[in-house]
Specification:
alpha+beta; five-stranded antiparallel β-sheet; single chain; 145 residues
Length: 145
């Protein structure tokens, strides 16, 4: 009886292992946007503009799904360490984030270097991604509109 319960738990866990990783990775890849013009082409005109430490920034609000490969990589480690059991938490969490960001939207800030290239990207106020470049502004503590 107990042996069958363990077998059932293992097979049901393995049947949906990795779905949260796929959700986190899906969506628009912001790393492909390298210039201000590309950002404007994807997101339209910015909601707010300004400067941080002498570097220009632009704020956008979107309901699009944004791919988060670094977060997905972190989840994969937890997935392996718990033999997939963390999926019981991660899958509902990813579905919640997907729903919230789709219905309410999310704020994205792009900062640019002096040549108009993307220097840093902030998603919901957190440093999300930045290319390897000598010109990086310091992280923004919050997004102002």
């Amino acid at each position: 009886m107990v042996r069958n319960a363990y077998l059932l738990l293992m097979t049901s866990t393995l049947s949906f292992t990795g779905c949260s990783l796929l959700i986190a990775r899906s969506g628009m890849d912001l790393q492909t946007l390298t210039t201000r013009e590309e950002v404007h082409h994807k997101f339209g005109p910015p909601l707010a503009t300004g400067t941080i430490d002498g570097h220009p920034f632009e704020d956008f609000h979107t309901r699009r799904k944004i791919s988060e490969p670094e977060r997905s990589a972190g989840w994969s480690m937890g997935l392996a360490m718990t033999w997939g059991l963390v999926e019981f938490y991660l899958f509902p969490h990813e579905v919640y984030l997907l729903g919230r960001r789709t219905f309410l939207g999310q704020d994205i800030r792009f900062t640019y270097d002096s040549a108009g290239k993307v220097a840093t990207v902030f998603l919901e106020g957190e440093k999300f991604w930045f290319p390897k470049s000598p010109e990086h502004p310091e992280p923004a503590s919050e997004i102002h509109h």
